[in-house]
Amino acid sequence: MANIILFAILAVVILASAIYSVVTKRIMRAATALLFVLFGVAGLYFLLDYTFLGAAQISIYAGGITMIYIFAIQLVSKHTLQGLQERLKGSRVVAGCLAALAGFATVVVVLLKHQFINQFEQLADEEMSMTEFGTQLMSAGEDGYVLPFEFISLFLLACIIGGLVVSRIKSKEE
To answer: Does the N-terminal or the C-terminal CB of the chain have fewer CB atoms within 10 Å?
Structure first.
């Protein structure tokens, strides 16, 4: 019973923070709300007794990625952020909704075509030990996840360098 109550509290915190992160017009508040979302997801991992994933969620995402966002926000000049007022046009809203529906339809078609749901049900019946999970997470073989993590880190590094280049170009123009 306590787990259900704790799950409900975490779910409300995650949903409220995620909605606030998208709806707010202040970028630092959005980054802070994103931090609460990531902490809530870590709480869900701890609730499920996945302590390694919870610690990784806090250290990598809540700690590292959110700090990268905040540093990137700080790199942008205050004049750019103060003058930023975006108005929604009806055509852009319609185009965005159509693109979201097309993406959703693509995901549904792929899930149905490749019968992923049946495979997930079969995998849910099998249990994996933490040793197997750690080995698979850190291996570079066919089922390993080290290479995707490395590609993501290189992508984030390229984004940071690109942000620095853009901020230098704008500062020279001013």
So the answer is: N
9 three-state secondary structure: helix
Q: What is the CA radius of gyration of the chain?
A: 20
Residues contacting residue 17 through CB under 8 Å, at least 6 positions apart: 33, 34, 36, 37, 40
- Cα–Cα distance measured from residue 42 to residue 46, given in angstroms and rounded to the nearest whole number: 6
Q: What is the distance of C-alpha 99 from the center of its chain?
A: 20
> For 96-128, what is each residue's pLDDT tens digit?
889 999 999 998 888 888 776 676 666 666 677
Backbone CA torsion sign across 111, 112, 114, 119: positive
Of all helices (H) and strands (E), which one includes residue 91? helix 90-113
**Is 0.85 surpassed by the pTM of this model?**
no
**Cβ neighbours of residue 21 closer than 8 Å, sequence gap 6 or more:** 30, 31, 33, 34, 37
Give the DSSP letter string of 10-75. Answer: HHHHHHHHHHHHHH-S-HHHHHHHHHHHHHHHHHHHHHTT-HHHHHHIIIIIIIIIHHHHHHHHHH
